[in-house]
Amino acid sequence: MTTSIIDRIKQSANEFSTQLIEIRRHLHTHPELSFEEKETAKFIATQLDKLGITYQKDIGGHGIVGLIKGNNPDQQTIALRADIDALPIHEKNKVSYCSVNEGKMHACGHDVHTTCLIGALKILNEIKDNFEGQIKFIFQPAEEKLPGGASILIQEGVLENPKVEKIFGEHVLPQLETGKVAFRSGISMASCDEIFITIKGNGGHGAVPNLAVDTVLIASHIVIALQQIVSRNANPIMPSVLTIGKFIANGATNVIPEEVKMEGTFRTFDEKWRADAKIKIVQIATSIAESMGAEIEIDIAHGYPFLKNDEEITQKAIANAKLYLGEQNVEELPIRMTAEDFSYYTQVVPACFYRLGTGNIEKGITSSIHTPTFDVDENCLEIGAGLMAWLAFRELSNGK
Fold first, then answer.
1. What is the rounded radius of gyration, in angstroms, for the C-alpha atoms of the chain?
2. 215 pLDDT exceeds 90?
3. What are φ and ψ of residue 132, in 5° steps?
4. What is the pLDDT of residue 3?
């Protein structure tokens, strides 16, 4: 059965490849930001209607969820997830499918993820008589913005009724050439918390700082001192990052401002250390500000947890990916300090989140995600859709 099914999946993905490109280009042309994906959801629904696949809409905002049932559907339920939102970035690509929504862009590949899931569902719907159990599909809104669409959907019961036993997701990786995929078992991506600090004091003339509270100097001390949280408090073998990426002191050459605002991020892979570090951030920043005569406001927005791939499921997926793409096209991922709200799913059910190669140096497709020139080699769509269908089939066919 393996040979015939794998050939059917590859053939179906190939035959649908032109439509996959059309779907992806439509999505790329019409991006919508987190919690605003109304037209995107309508378009996805239209594609599912064409394929004769039933679904529920308006889940957790603009989410779409449904089931494809194989033989004995109550035997097992696995889930496939794609995120559908875009980023607040002005696109600079000179392509026919460039974003027409000013200041909005699919710069993180969610158009690819959505397209691949649509393609996978088409294939799985065609071969549903060949697997046992059922597949819940999740087109998830708002991955890019806290609290994260995944957390909202989980609260609304997306992993229940029927209960999901395993979940899979994919993400583009432009540093990996098209035709390849990459996996990592165990901890894979970091947690992500957002730090907001405001320093307030009596401003004044730069020539007489003794008559003012120097908010710029105080904020600078805080930025430097916070680095000891990672360098001197974190376990050296536990990856951690604390970065202040925004520092606004709207004074002048001779003006000490009354207020300085800072924003940053803290990331790690251990929940206890994550909680302890946030306490230390508050303690260190507060003590410095107060000791130097300033007032301080601190808000730490609790973000996504760390992402952990289930060892057994991921190893099985790696083996199956090698069967589908060839051993030379399946690589191992290093730990990444980036974050993803798919991590919420991994905290609840066994999961596998893997990377789809989308780069092509010869075509000049090399830009990283979250940049205004990000694009993909669209040959990745056929590969991504087919592989996702294959991985789902293998999970529901007992390896037959």
1. 24
2. yes
3. -105, 130
4. 59
Per-residue model confidence (pLDDT) at position 2: 53
- On whether both 24 and 169 belong to a single domain, the answer is yes
Altogether, the residues listed in the chain come to a count of: 400
Whether 264 and 182 share a structural domain: no
Residues annotated as catalytic (active site), given as ranges: 85, 143
Q: Is the pTM of this model over 0.90?
A: yes
Residue 286 is assigned to a structural domain of this protein: yes
Q: Are strands 56-59 and 63-69 parallel, antiparallel or unpaired?
A: antiparallel
Domain CATH code at residue 261:
3.30.70.360
Answer whether residue 400 is part of any domain.
no
Asked whether residue 291 falls in the same domain as residue 322, the answer is: no
Q: What is the rounded CA–CA span in Å between residue 146 and residue 176?
A: 28
Shared-domain flag, residues 156 and 207: no
Range of the domain at 296: 193-301
Looking at 282, 301, 320, the residue that finishes a domain is: 301
